[in-house]
Amino acid sequence: MMTNWIPLGKQSEFSDGVQRRATTAGLILVTRLGDQVYAFDASCPHSGGDLRQCEKEGSTISCPLHGWTFDLSRRGYETHGFRGLRTYATRISDGMLFINLDPTVDEVATIGSD
Amino acid sequence: MSDAKKPSYTSIFNNVRIIGQLFAGDRLRWQTELPIGSPSLPFVLHLSCFVHYTPHIPLLAQRILERIGIECPILGGPENCCGALHVHMGDAALGEQAARIGIGSFRRARPTTILSVCPDCDEMFSQFMPRVAPYRHSNISEIFVEQLAKLKPMMRPVNRRVVIHSHDSNPQRQRDKANIEAVLGAIPGLEIIKADHAEGIGPHCQILAPMPATLRDAMFDEAVALGAESLIVPYHSCYRQHLKSELRWPLSVQHYISLIGESLGLHEEEEYKKLRLLDDVDKAVEMLRPRFEPLGYTADEVRPMVEWAVYC
Fold first, then answer.
1. Of B188 and A110, which is predicted with more confidence?
2. In terms of pTM, does the model score above 0.90?
3. Domain boundary among B85, B116, B147
4. Looking at the predicted structure, is the pLDDT value of residue A1 above 70?
5. pLDDT of res. A113
6. Which residues of chain A neighbour B75 with C-beta distances below 8 Å?
7. Which of A59, A62, A65 to mutate to test binding with chain B, by most B CBs within 10 Å of its CB?
8. B147, B182, B208: which is the final residue of a domain?
9. Number of domains chain B is built from
10. Identity of the residue in A53, A57, A67 whose CB atom sits nearest the CB atom of B78
11. For position B207, what pLDDT does the model report?
């Protein structure tokens, strides 16, 4: 069932870097960490820093403005205990990447899982 | 700075947060933001990123101001970065964004005056201040001079011969120099010795542009020859750079705010100096162990941070 899943584009469009897409929830960024594909808000919850310029390390991304660090494998938990980053469930189906805006859905797409 | 040598902002800010917490313990109380709707504050002391390494400076500044009836909460942390770090790393646009965010954060606190102890913060925030400034941004040396009539009667003698290290690369730094001389000149018993080689280069002794060794040697050699017992520095960055010279020259290195504090009978431990003068990273980590272990950090995590912050 793909109810409430929104297509963002072909899986191949998200092979590297940080990609930005406009959705009804606003601007969303997509990035790969290892084989997993994560989607999250484009702006840092601290002061709106552009997370396209984020620094990546392991399962975390950091805002370059003030170093708030979000663990994408833990649904955007801020590692110093500040406000977390909103993340979105991802799924790959028929070579397309989908996200789900429902915060209760917890799913992370793995490349090659289609 | 080339990208190959460029440390990540994540690691720098993480270092500031963790080392700052370990050094300050529970003595230094500061906030990353003030709640909307809080009453307007006459003064707010801005704690810049790397001043977290030397918490005795803002602590003493706050206590000195309290002595003269000025309540001064501290707004700090990387959350209030002035953006100079980004500029030094070659990211001018990010630096401007950080400075504007910082100004917005101060504006929300509705202060009359933001006090700074950092020359980089002075320059960044001044550069991006709105045309109609929502508050006054001032280096703290200005306030000490403005309040000297209140400070002076409280000053006790400090019988010491000192040379003052200074920077005069721009009008603000020249004002700081004059202010510091004026305030220290009011301390009974303190003898300020004029020196020819005590001038630093640039706005302060930056990590990326330190005072060249030949100039530093000339400054310390001259100070010793003149019979100085202390070299007094104007900024935390100068303090960090020069205090290790205590291992080589027979005089102490002291921040001017510490000296004002001393004349008022105020003292704060200088953790940074203690760790640096051990001249041994492993011993420094061991000294910090009672502070980092209860917080769940390991020696392996803390060691590179100490190395970077204290032994750089």
1. B188
2. yes
3. B147
4. no
5. 66
6. none
7. A65
8. B147
9. 2
10. A67
11. 82
- In this prediction the ipTM stands at 0.84
What confidence score (pLDDT) does residue A2 get?
A: 72
CB contact A43 to B (< 8 Å):
no
Clarify whether residues B30 and B133 are in a common domain. Answer: yes
Q: B242 — alpha (psi -120 to 50), left (phi > 0) or beta?
A: alpha
Question: What's the confidence (pLDDT) of residue B41?
Answer: 84
Which stretches of chain B drop beneath a pLDDT of 70? 1-5
* Chain-chain contact of B13 with A66 (C-beta, under 8 angstroms): yes
pLDDT in the model for residue B1: 41
78-97 of B, contacting A, C-beta below 8 A:
78-79, 81, 86, 91, 94, 97
Fold of A5-110: Rieske Iron-sulfur Protein (2.102.10)
CB pairs under 8 A between A and B: 43
Mean pLDDT for chain B overall: 93
pLDDT in tens, A31-51: 999 889 999 999 999 999 999
